[in-house]
Amino acid sequence: MNDDLVENTLSFASAPRVALKVKNLSVLTDKDNIIVHNVSMKVPSGSLIAIIGGSGSGKTTLLNVLANKVAKGLKYTGEYKIVPESDSPTSFVTTAYLTQHDILSPKLTCREILQYAADLKSTSSKAEKCQLVEELIAELGLKDCADTYVGDPNHPGLSGGEKRRLSIGIQMISNPSLMFLDEPTTGLDAYSAYLAIKTLRKLSHKAGKTFIMSIHQPRADILFLLDQICILSKGYNVFCSSVSKMVPYFHNLGYDVPEHVNPADFFIDLCSVDTRTTNTTKQTEERLQLLKQSWQSYEKNLDFTIEDTEKDIKLSSPSVPFWSQVKVLTARSIKLNLRDTVTFVGVLLEPVVIGTIAGWIYYKPDKTTLSGIRTVSGALYSSGALQGYLFQLFETYRLCEKDIKVYDRERSEGSVTPLAFFVSRRIANFLLEDFAVPFIFSIITFFMYGLNVNARSFFIYFSVVLLVHQTSTSLAMLSVSISRDFSQASLIGNLTYTLQSMASGFFVNAKKMPVYVRWTKYIAFIWYSFGCLMSNQFTDFACNLEGQEGCYGNMLLDSFGYSRNWITVPIIAVFCWGIGFYIFSIFFLYWKRVDVSMATKVKSRKKAELGTKDENIDVESFNLETPRCGEIPITIEISGLTLRLEKLDFLSTNAHKFGNHQTKCILSQIDAVFKPNMINAIMGPSGSGKSSLLNLISGRLNSTLFKTFHTEGTISFNGLTISRNKFRDVCSFVPQDDDHLLAKLTVRETLSYAAELRLHHLSSSERSLRIDELISELGLKHCENHLVGDELSKGISGGEKRRVSMGIQLLTDPPILLLDEPTSGLDSFTSFKILDVLNKICQKPGRTVILTIHQPRAELFEDFGNVLLLAKGGNIAFNGSPLEMMKYFSGLGYYCPPLTNVADFFLDLISINTQNDENEEISSKRVTKLLENWRVRQKENAKVSEKSMTQEKLIEFLDINSTSKAGFGVAYKVTVRRQFKTMRRSMDSLIARLAQIPGLGIILALFFAPIKHDYTSVSNRLGLVQESTALYYTGMLTNLACYPSERDYFYGEFNDNVYGVAPFYLGYMTIELPMALAGSALYAIFIVLVCGLNRTAGNFFATLYCTLIIVTCGEALGIITNTLFQQPGFVVNIVSIVLSIGTVMSGLMSLQMSRVLKGINYISPMNYTSMIMINMAFPDDLRLTCKDGGQTTDGSCTFSTGRDVLETFGLVKSVRIYLGVIICVWFIYRLIAYLILKAKLEWFRK
After folding, report:
1. 125 and 47 inside one domain
2. SS3 per-residue string spanning 347-400
3. Residue 996 and residue 981: Cα distance in Å, rounded?
4. Which of 427, 723, 1083, 1237 has its CA 20 to 30 A from that of 1030?
5. Residue 41 CA to chain centroid, in angstroms?
6. What's the domain count of the chain?
7. Distance between CA 751 and CA 128 in Å, rounded?
8. Are residues 119 and 82 in the same domain?
9. DSSP character for 1163?
């Protein structure tokens, strides 16, 4: 088939040839647990070697150590050395490393990403680099998508396989002498994987490059492209030599490879331990022990000596000079900023919106009154802090979600330095962000505030806003350099800003704050910026007013502790803080490395579980039948099924189009039959519509505002037409992604909670037996008490997560089971076990299994009962049994060679080779001919489907097998227990729930306690109540830490019709409210008793009440936005803007708002809580002195009682009425959150 294809040429420059020698290399954890045992190998230059083995065999660990990437917590013994060939005099060689994950800029095209990579890694001429980029695009089969954006979940672009090939190209473009590749074929269809490895072989043999890779499941023809292979099992070497010696070696041990079986699959099975039963575990462990001993004896005759005289080569990373890096990164950043239209417009629109709203709130107050002066001070504080805080949150989000990930990859590759990243970022953002945003905000607010209208005052005002913006941006960079996790980075930024606001002098008088925290104002850049703005506005302001000696402005500055004309020093201080933050962030970027911890095991508190007491229980013979499943065999037939996608895309995935309607045909006239009691496999290359077909028939494709699916055709059960909604009710669906699993639950706990909800009609002991059966059948016994884990806390492997997802769906023993890529990411032995389990399920009466699969093993392919083969574009190439498939293609002249997986062979037949125009033309003609042949055969053999069941039988079948939701009581109890357990194990959630509220109270107590009864205490009391509005942020951040993971898991269960919205929502509130109450009580203790804010029982309980209300309203707002939007960073920015506006409008910073804004305040809980707390803080019996200021010309006090303060500032409210109204507002917030969640999942789904 490939004999007529044309080979491309790659114009790589010559590179030094190097060999790798390894002797007795072992890798251990800090606790001396051995991961890899005494591995030895010798890899000559120009070799292609693969490390294969089952999950947990140590492939990636060994690869990382050889690449000099020893993870934190690991160490190694033995030795390995990279040595030059005799004719290579160099002492440095370039290396490259391909990670398992594809980290790419979503708004760049394939060609642009490769071009930028070449510019960052190569010193060749521009023409040479462009030529190499085009050659790689052709060689890696990226020609069709060369000008397509990489894309992201919201704007899909490249497929997973295309991203993987692009990542390979990024590493190859540096022309490395030695390249390490971790799972390079993950996500690739069989044919693309073959072409990728074939390219590596070409480079190794013709250019002398050495490639060392780990790989899960190499197909047969890939296996024989390799020069050497190492087989690992449980960290031990079972074989490590040339591929040509592998089959004879195992033959001598008595193991022969069957015909049409992939040798790699066969040998991985041979070396793996089968943990499904006690007997199989014992037998396979004994066999592995014999294989280890055989290899240890064999390798004694091999020479792995590493001579001390051999020259050791130092590894170097591909890079260009510093200013060249800056130039490339700057150009790329500018392009990304301009292409991200939504973000770009949002960045420029934000100062307009915030500036206009802030200007409206503080619009030209009467500066001759105390309330007007207070309002101007609040306006200046907002200018010096609010805008900077909001941009700091946005910059933290943008770095964490996008830019820092690409930087970390390029930094690990050695092509980008932290300083170049920092400098290029500031240059790229200077005009359009760093200058434009402060300038727009300053222009709007300066004149709306009614400040001193002269050029000097405006220039000082703008300078301060500009410097605060830069300092806030540098603080965001510092936060992200410390932690890449957005929740932690934003917490660092928020804590820093809390300190800034407390020490600023606006909320608590800087001259009178306790001496042990008074020094903090000198490390608070907002104290300097606020002081500069105050001095700029109030120096020699309001002089010779009636009844007032001197200038009131100067008196005000003196009360705040600021000097007149205090301009130069604070501006320099803010500038220095910005520079200091940048210096520290660059230091952390150099010093701090991102790491993933080892898997965590949780000890079960139960001494024995049912099914584990008797180690010899035969779970394979155990068959728990659920009484609701019918036994009617169902033949599923689809006729004329067509799927078209119409997208209204304002940012097209094609780089040369902008804002258009795109229509794409995904499936074209699919006529197929899926039969019962057998595995029905949907196969095809990437882009053939396999997953789309499965999602369509399962009812999982939902149209949105910008994406509409148009479908035609019918689905029938035994000849009777059925709607897709009814089909969905009787099937279980295992999705391709496992991100919905809860990271802090163990495997057994995950299955146990799922069983309680799905098998609620069974007893506890029956459910436990069912769980034990599944754990054993799915090979999860060894990790049943391990946490599932996530990106930041590693738990079980990706393959194990896939099996857990399958186990959840298999609990109910469904009549129809749909699985999207169930073997993706699994090694060949685990894939065999999974499909073996599915095969056993098929044998039960009335079971139909349909799955999509990339690359089935040969022996499993032959066991498939029915195969639907799709070509690119969603066209059928074949539908029938594997035996019929082989006869059909043989009749067309296509015969499968020996030792070749027949499934791989057929997939190659219908795949198009886009490496060059000649290959594309040849393969396209072949595929077109095959598709036409099948259409002709379908027409010739067309027949009307027969009805094998009556309509009444169908209705009965649907009634019996439709999924029934768990009752409210069952679902509520399970969700409460599950959420409490995940929260208890998550440090972030615990801190969010238990520490944030009292933590804020402690900080406020440090700065405000004790509050006295003098003139200064007036502003301090106002400031303390105003700072309490930060509890709104606390509620939102708590929700961000706890809600998204529970939401995602609930979405999956809701899609499976397990339970409804109400149990989940009330369960979440059950966990939330008691902890919020406890935190609120502690907060009230610090505010009322420690600070001394009117120490009465009434004030204590009113403060506790208001704290609870405002925190939980913040949580409700978090639920609303986290339901409407999926990305947490975007949620934080949206909510922060809303909360910041609500804080400013709470009634204490602007005392002269317009009636419209006061009307809007009636829906803000912060307005009510602030008014309640401020009225309780200034009771009628409060007596105030004025020795420290506030005396009139006749010697009397401006404020003598608490009532005077409230009346002067217009803050007198009915506490009793407000206490009643606020609980109504709370119920409204909670009801809106519930209704939005219910509307998204139930009302607005199409």
Report:
1. no
2. HHHHHHHHHHHHHHHCCCCCCCCHHHHHHHHHHHHHHHHHHHHHHHHHHHHHHH
3. 20
4. 1237
5. 38
6. 4
7. 56
8. no
9. G
